[in-house]
């Protein structure tokens, strides 16, 4: 099992960030590489289909824990990277009233071990861009 973990602080409250993340909907508003995203259903068990580089990514929402601000999703369909059994986790921690530590991680199995360095670098870059995008979206939308 491999893992990619990114932790970064953003200048918005943890509750503001959580209100955006917890639904799992419209990821394309704040994740730069996602060109479209639709949610079928709501809460745990909902299905999400996002498009990245013209390819669909099929996911299911696994955990929406309001008390701990913990969101998990499982990737079922993807052809972007040589990985399988992927479980993504976003955990938000209040650092103060207007600062949040965002931990975004993915646990998965590699289908091609030689690709590990490229996968690790690519995923880390995606998550850093997503965390930055989350903060910018919240500030720009007036949600903060």
Describe this structure in words.
By secondary structure, the chain is an alpha+beta fold. A hairpin with a 6-residue loop joins strand 2 and strand 3. The model has no long low-confidence stretch (mean pLDDT 94). It is built from two helices and seven strands; from the N terminus they run E-H-E-E-E-E-E-E-H. Helix content is 24%, strand content 47%. The longest helix has 26 residues, at 116-141. It is globular and about 45 Å long. A seven-stranded antiparallel beta sheet has the order 1-7-6-5-4-3-2. The chain has a single domain (2-141), classed as Alpha-D-Glucose-1,6-Bisphosphate, Chain A, domain 4.
Instruction: Report the radius of gyration as a whole number of Å.
Output: 15 Å
- Give the class-level CATH name: Alpha Beta
- Give the helices and strands as they follow along the chain: EHEEEEEEH
State the helical fraction: 10-25%
What is the third-level CATH name, the topology? Alpha-D-Glucose-1,6-Bisphosphate, Chain A, domain 4
* Uncertain stretches: none
Number of domains in the coordinates? 1
Q: Provide a count of the helices.
A: 2
What spatial order of strands do you see in the largest sheet? 1-7-6-5-4-3-2
Major sheet details: 7 strands, antiparallel
**Average pLDDT metric:** 94
What percentage of the residues does DSSP assign to strands (E)?
over 45%
- What does the overall shape look like? globular
Number of E-state strands: 7
- Secondary structural class: alpha+beta
CATH architecture: 2-Layer Sandwich
Distance separating the two termini: 37 Å
